[in-house]
Amino acid sequence: MFFKRSSELAPENKAGLFERMKKALGATKSNLVSRIEAVLTSRPAIDEELLEELEGILLGADLGVRATTRIINEIREQKKKGLVKTPDDVRASIKKQLLAILETQANIEASTAAVAQEVWMVVGVNGTGKTTTVGKLAARLSQEGKRVLVCAADTFRPAAIEQLAVWVERSGAELVKSKIGADPSAVLHDALAAAEARKSDIVIADTAGRLHTRSNLMQELEKMRRVAGRKIAGAPHEVLLVIDATTGQNGLAQAREFLKSTGVTGLIVTKLDGTAKGGVLFSIYQELGIPVRYIGVGESLEDLLEFSPEDFVDSLFSENRN
After folding, report:
1. For residues 32, 103, 236 and 127, what is the CA-based torsion angle, rounded to 10 degrees?
2. Percentage of the chain modeled with pLDDT above 70
3. Are 205 and 120 in contact (CB under 8 A)?
4. What tens digit of pLDDT does each residue of 43-95 get?
5. Cα–Cα distance for residue pair 237/131, rounded to 1 Å
6. What gap in Å lies between CA 36 and CA 57, rounded to an integer?
7. How far apart are the first and last CA of the chain?
């Protein structure tokens, strides 16, 4: 795979990325950690009333029932064993549990089989920032020295093709598109043929994004998977689902439907800089175990960051990196 893990980055680059993530997660931090701190500092004892307040905060921050229950039950067990006695102990336990949830699937990687071209399908409902994200992803990979070809397979929205063309031009990648209303699978087939001729490293397909509850969309995406697989062994090598963090638990419902129909291998969570619902990442991990590959933290071409569970949790709990 072509992922450059954060551990491979120079220290100064890692520090800069951490600061950008911390800034982007400011609203989520206020909705989650700041409220946790307020409860811990206002209660003299670690009792059931305090735990019930914490439970409400976690649910309100979109962590979901399963992740919240896991965290609160763990604190109860540690309290029974005498391991949790102070607010600092509770804080440490919550942070440890949040990191454990994200790290459960953090090391899952896509196939590393050597192929002439890799095929990445980017899926998701309209309005999540999918097309913009494809452009940012193409820019990241191009900057890493990869020859990227983008396939405009969202043929049902003229604006999507126009928007994608602008982003691809800015990214330094190449674009294959067709007329409005063309068969998305046929466009993908043409793109894969072009990638072979041009010796591209990665083909990124921007797919249609109508409502995820419509079976015809899922059938179209499955057809594209078959076309890719017939053209290149093992394709698609990634199916990346784009989720808008501002939708909270609706994002979980979308992830569940796309996972069932399209074999999602990873998530890209966008608009984290404009929401207090970043806690939905924990809910998705706990419920579905799908790893987050990237997060969107702004509108600029470089505002697509590789996701690091440790940095994500640290940015929520720390003013200064330890």
Report:
1. 0
2. 89
3. yes
4. 878 999 999 999 999 999 999 999 999 999 999 999 999 999 999 999 999 99
5. 19
6. 7
7. 30
Rounded Cα distance between 116 and 228, Å, is 13
Residue pointed to by tokens 């996701």: 307
Contact of 257 with 212, CB cutoff 8 Å: yes
pLDDT tens sequence across 224-266:
999 999 999 899 999 999 998 888 888 888 888 888 878 899 9
b/e burial code for range 256-286 (CB count within 10 A of at least 16 → b): bbbbebbebbbbbbbbbbbbbbbbbbbbbbb
Sign of CA dihedral 294, 304, 180, 175: negative
Q: What is the DSSP string of 231-255?
A: HSTT--SEEEEEEEGGGTHHHHHHH
Q: What CA–CA distance (Å, rounded) separates 119 from 229?
A: 9
